[in-house]
Design goal:
The protein is of the alpha/beta class. It folds into two domains: about 5-180, 3-Layer(aba) Sandwich (Rossmann fold), CATH 3.40.50.2020; about 185-440, TIM Barrel. About 40% of the residues lie in helices and about 15% in strands. The chain has helices spanning about 1-10, 15-30, 45-55, 95-105, 125-130, 140-150, 155-170, 175-180, 190-195, 200-210, 225-235, 250-265, 280-285, 295, 310, 340-350, 395-400, 410-415, 420-440, and strands spanning about 35-40, 60, 75, 85-90, 115-120, 135-140, 215, 240, 270-275, 300-305, 325-330, 355-360, 375, 385, 390-395, 405-410. The chain has an eight-stranded parallel β-barrel with strand order 7-8-9-10-11-12-13-16, surrounded by five helices. A six-stranded mixed beta sheet has the order 3-2-1-4-5-6, with helices on both faces. The longest helix is centred in the C-terminal third of the chain and has 20 residues, at about 420-440. The relative contact order is 0.09. Bound molecules: 5-iodo-2'-deoxyuridine-5'-monophosphate (5IU). 5-iodo-2'-deoxyuridine-5'-monophosphate binds next to strand 16 and helix 18. 5-iodo-2'-deoxyuridine-5'-monophosphate (5IU) binds near residues 219, 332 and 413. Keywords: Decarboxylase, Lyase, Pyrimidine biosynthesis. Its EC number is 4.1.1.23. In the C-terminal section; belongs to the OMP decarboxylase family. In the N-terminal section; belongs to the purine/pyrimidine phosphoribosyltransferase family.
């Protein structure tokens, strides 16, 4: 029945040219999109005609990646951050649309609208909607049946039959978190292109070139122990997290050595100070005192609790060098008092400060959609566990694949190991493998 119906619709609407004219008036001519992309393969002629008519460049998605050459899935000239309108002929479940969108989003393209000639009203519209886009249909199946009935092209029995079939045969519900979290399927390189904060850009590029998304939490109290740990582990990490105020023999030379190692091994330094006071006090804590955090830390952790005034304490470069802030959106400790609303409000707070905020410290990054923000997740060990103070550990698979971590923080999992270097390699490889799996097309 379905093949016949489709052929009937196509012939009654007299050709691609007429349909593309209708589609153009319906949804393309007022669109501000940078690109069009037809869902392969049957929508390609319509998308081509619409591209010619509207002069909006077309992108092509390859369903099969080439085994030679560039292996690109998306052909065309585009930049991450540009928008793309999806063109489809018929939507049933929406799964083909979603597959195409996934590949486009992995390239950093922004997809908000999908236009279709015919919505069969079997759940496709809901699936597209619940995955973060809007479906606009030129015709619904109900409208089409009514037109055909009115024109005497089909009998009432046939119309009832088709209506019955459509209302009883619903497509499965599709909910793919990677589609609403744009960053999840994107490579670190692509996200570096989108980042506005130079430190975020640098961090993402370090991760991509060193092939590591491991941050070492160097929670030791002696400067010599920290420096010797970093001498062994530095080449395996993208970032080192410090708690400068736990060091017992702190001296300025330590900072010189720390910076030297950061340059030698190409990692960034995050001081996990968790600033939490009013902006003025925080500014003094950041710039003054014996640790002079602003002078050596590329990034700091900051509580959102006092409100956005706290962020103003970190705005502007220090000695001409940009800095980054990780806002605390969640904690890994059992029974902490952070609520879902607090987490969401923290993520919303960063929107206006994307030139300063590098990302969020959190456990579950479902609300972090912007690919220019990094999800930093502490509480990571090779097996699920807890320490005596309520710290909760998740595995690399859980944090990267299920909870969306971009960088995983490992402290005692490495620091307390007999051989920290070989343990760091184990973490690095496990975390990187999860990331590669996450961004792959499967
Ligand atoms: N840290 C957490 N959980 C959090 C936040 C920070 O563990 O929610 I915010 C810090 C504390 C410690 C490191 O410095 O991350 C984790 O160390 P272990 O892997 O040794 O637990």
């Amino acid at each position: 029945m379905y093949g016949n119906q489709k052929a009937y619709v196509a012939s009654s609407l007299s050709g691609d040219d007429m349909i593309s004219s209708l589609m153009y008036d319906f949804a393309v001519k007022d669109s501000k999109c940078d690109h069009l992309c037809g869902v392969p393969y049957t929508a390609l002629p319509i998308a081509t005609l619409l591209s010619v008519k509207s002069k909006i460049p077309m992108l092509m998605r390859r369903k099969e990646t080439k085994s030679y050459g560039t292996k690109k899935t998306i052909e065309g000239h585009y930049k991450a951050g540009q928008s793309c309108l999806i063109i489809e002929d018929v939507v049933t479940s929406g799964s083909s649309v979603l597959e195409t969108v996934k590949d486009l989003k992995a390239e950093g393209l922004v997809i908000e609208d999908v236009i279709v000639i015919l919505d069969r009203e079997q759940g496709g519209s809901q699936n597209i909607d619940s995955n973060g886009m809007k479906l606009k249909s030129l015709y619904t199946m109900t409208q089409l049946i009514n037109i055909l009935l009115r024109k005497g092209e089909i009998t009432k029995e046939m119309a009832d039959d088709v209506r019955h079939y459509l209302s009883t045969t619903k497509a499965p519900v599709i909910k793919d978190h990677s589609l609403t979290m744009d960053r999840i399927k994107m490579s670190y390189e692509k996200r570096a292109e989108l980042a506005q904060n130079p430190i975020t850009k640098q961090l993402l590029n370090i991760m991509a070139t060193k092939r590591t998304n491991l941050c070492l939490s160097a929670d030791l109290t002696s400067t010599t122990k920290i420096l010797s740990l970093l001498e062994n582990v530095g080449e395996h990490v993208c970032m080192v997290k410090t708690h400068i105020d736990i060091i017992e023999d702190f001296n300025d030379d330590f900072l010189v050595q720390l910076k030297h190692l950061a340059d030698k091994f190409n990692f960034l330094i995050l001081e996990d100070r968790k600033f939490a006071d009013i902006g003025n006090t925080v500014s003094l804590q950041y710039l003054k005192g014996m640790y002079k955090v602003a002078e050596w830390a590329d990034m700091v952790t900051v509580h959102s609790l006092p409100g956005e005034g706290i962020l103003k304490a970190f705005t502007g470069s220090i000695n001409g060098v940009s800095r980054g802030v990780f806002l605390l959106a969640e904690m890994s400790s059992q029974g902490n008092l952070i609520s879902a609303e607090y987490t969401k409000a923290t993520i919303d707070m960063a929107d206006k400060y994307s030139d300063l905020v590098t990302g969020f410290v959190c456990q579950n990054g479902e609300h972090i959609k912007n690919p220019a923000f990094i999800q930093l997740t502490p509480g990571v060990q090779l097996i699920n566990a807890e320490d005596d103070f309520g710290q909760v550990y998740n595995t690399p698979e859980t944090v990267v694949l299920e909870k969306g971590a971009d960088v995983a923080v490992v402290g005692r999992g490495i620091v307390a190991a007999k051989n920290p270097e070989s343990q760091a390699v184990i973490y690095k490889e496990a975390l990187w493998e999860c990331y590669v799996k996450r961004i792959s097309n499967t």
